[in-house]
Design brief:
The protein is an alpha/beta fold. It has 10 helices and 9 strands. The strands form 2 sheets. Strands 2-3-1-4-5-6 form a 6-stranded mixed sheet, with helices on both faces. It has a 3-stranded mixed sheet with strand order 7-8-9. It is globular. The protein starts with a strand and ends with a helix. The protein binds guanosine-5'-triphosphate and magnesium ion (MG).
């Protein structure tokens, strides 16, 4: 039996979370086209008769000096110390820039097992050829795969390789688990994803979700509880952002609530109803204590 922890690293929006969701066959980690959607190390579990592969999703590596962004990079550094294999995901549609060069250096210096996976090959372009050439010349001894996390093309070969290089070991999670996240965290992430998808510009980076409480109730208030009620705050940084998230006569927050309830009710074995409020907490991204809890 094989068992390995595998860190998935890459630039923001290279498709790390999409890759893990496709591999694990379920929504493990939220996805959007806004860079830095992922803020935590999120585990997705792949089970097979060959063993268990535990993928660790990481925030996209960035070069910003801001406290919040630096904390995301620290998360990546910590993950590298905990894993058996490093999987570096490269976006086939974006030219290498300063960020990618910095990541390439970190990848080069990593001394454990490692592979490179070029993602988004379903999108036709010439950048893929250039990436292929540069990476093959620079990393002669390292396996380079080409995949689409959206269509699933090429993923089987990546899994085969990962099992090949994984150490022998027993499963660390039950074989029907695809993630080990706490329900409350998953609920907050799905709500955050819906806010990101419904808003633009600075809003996605300025929010976090604070789950106040959860309670099981029957829709009629009697009998067997079949619905989980969740009271949550969507925290923003400024009054103007509050207005944007609420929308005209509450239309935006209603859309967010309905989309989140729909997805959550499909993910969990019970219905989920949300009571969402929007609240301003100025400068929350500079609050160390809060970041310690949010970016664990
Ligand atoms: N066409 C195409 N799009 C993809 C593929 N993989 C991911 N995407 C898209 O790329 C965008 C970013 O995907 P994510 O999975 O959120 O990327 P990420 O690397 O986790 O991003 P961060 O968490 O922000 O670092 C989303 O719009 C995805 O739908 C792919 O193989 N093909
Ligand atoms: Mg992500």
């Amino acid at each position: 039996m094989k068992f390995a922890f595998i860190a998935v690293i890459g630039r923001p929006s290279s498709g790390k979370s999409t890759f893990i969701n496709t591999v694990c066959g379920e929504k493990v980690s939220i996805v959007s086209n806004v860079p830095q959607t992922t803020r935590n190390k999120i585990r997705g579990i792949y089970n097979s008769s060959r063993g268990q592969l535990v993928f660790i999703d990481t925030p996209g590596f960035n070069l910003s000096e801001k406290k919040f962004n630096q904390r995301l990079n620290t998360t990546i550094q910590n993950v590298l110390k905990e894993v058996d294999i490093l999987l570096y995901l490269v976006d086939a549609t974006r030219m290498f820039g300063q960020e990618e060069n910095e990541l390439l250096l970190q990848f080069e210096n990593y001394s454990g097992h490692k592979i490179i996976v070029i993602n988004k090959i379903d999108i036709q372009n010439n950048i893929l050829k250039s990436h292929r050439k540069i990476l093959r010349e620079r990393f002669k001894d390292i396996d380079i795969f080409e995949i689409s996390s959206l269509t699933g093309i090429g993923i089987d070969r990546v899994i085969d390789k990962l099992f090949q290089i994984s150490p022998e070991g027993e499963r660390q999670y039950p074989d029907d688990f695809y993630t080990d996240q706490e329900p409350v965290f998953r609920i907050s992430e799905i709500i955050r994803e819906k806010v990101i998808l419904e808003t633009r510009e600075e809003i996605p980076h300025s929010i976090y979700i604070d789950i106040l409480d959860t309670e099981f109730l029957n829709a009629t208030g009697e009998g067997i509880s079949d619905t989980m009620w969740v009271r949550a705050l969507v925290i923003v940084e400024r009054e103007t952002q509050k207005g944007i998230v609420i929308g005209h006569r509450g239309s935006k927050i209603k859309k967010i609530r309905i989309a989140a309830e729909k997805e959550l009710s499909a993910l969990f074995p019970y219905r989920i109803k949300l009571d969402l409020r929007v609240k301003v907490r100025k400068n929350w991204r500079k609050n160390d204590h809060l970041l310690n809890t949010l970016l664990r």
